[in-house]
Amino acid sequence: MKFAACFQCRARACSGAVRRRVDRPLPPARERGVALITAVLVVAIAAVIATSMMSRQNFDTRRTANIIHRDQAIAYALGAEYWAGVELSRDAQQNNFDHLGENWAYDLPPLPIDGGYINGRLRDLQGRFNLNSVLDPIQAERFARLCQAINVDPDFIPALQDWIDDDTEVRENGAEDESYTRLAPPYRTANRFLVDSSELLLVQGVGVDDYNILAFYVSALPVSGAINVNTAAPQLIQSLTRDVTVPEAERIIGLRTANPYPDVDVFVEDEAFAGREISEEHLTVSSQYFLLTADVVLGDATLTMQSVLYRTPQGQITVVQRRFGPSREQILTQSGGTFVAGN
Ligand SMILES: [Ca+2]
Ligand SMILES: [Ca+2]
Description:
The structure is a single chain. The chain is α/β, with parallel strands linked by helices. It is 37% helix and 15% strand. It has helices at residues 29-94, 137-149, 157-164, 177-180, 208-214, 234-238, 246-258, 264-268, 328-334; strands spanning 108-113, 116-124, 129-130, 218-219, 227-228, 283-284, 289-298, 301-311, 317-324. The longest helix is centred in the N-terminal third of the chain and has 66 residues, at 29-94. It is elongated and about 120 Å long. The N and C termini lie far apart (100 Å). The model is unreliable at 337-343 (pLDDT under 50). One calcium ion binds at residues 162, 165, 167-168, 176, 189, 191.
């Protein structure tokens, strides 16, 4: 076996110095370069794989946290629903009329919870026009006046009546199956009450812009419910009979804020309606249907729940509809749509 000279003293016989075997020659510089690149590539690939695994692990961790937070958020939202039921039930024990000065009508301020906050608000759905009452001639006239007050063309009302009535007879300017089955995709009239006011978008003559305005003034109750004159928006008060001016409607709003109407008789005798016929039909001072909107923010999870609550005159509460997702107000605000502050 041969040894090269010592690297330090150049002596062949140096015993303490580092020696290099000479019977195995160094590979050419080109091969050493290839080996180096291969090593760098292996390290780079290993680094990429490690990074990918860590990212996936982080993603799984965040996804699990989001699932847990969402489940917790749903539990908090259901808690808000319970709160709303208690408030409405308590209110029913106190009096037999409903107005915007009562406890249930005040928004729940953001309440801190572990890792976030929750807020909620109740709205009287009978302070809006119930689309399912539009088959009644008096209500149809009121709805036409409401549309005019909020700058929506009321020409679609006969089509809405055809959409709800249970026959297939086309009324004047209306629309039944033959109008919708020619569309792409085709569909048929419901021939029953609307389940949700967004069903309006399927009715002939209702555009998205119209709906974006109407959404804040209408509801779709499972019954032909009456309008609560103590909670109705000024435009709806204005629509109750002919030729009620905006100042007159605002005066009524001011009066009812100070002294809510205890019954409909007192309301229709208001001087704002002097000389005009106003029917007591489909008017009330007490409500049975309310909309709860609860927003929960928990960690990175944000949840909005909307529940329709039905209250019997005795104060028993039933949840008749519940949905998760952004409210119409949030959707319209995010999409830059028109936001009109209604009840
Ligand atoms: Ca009340
Ligand atoms: Ca029909």
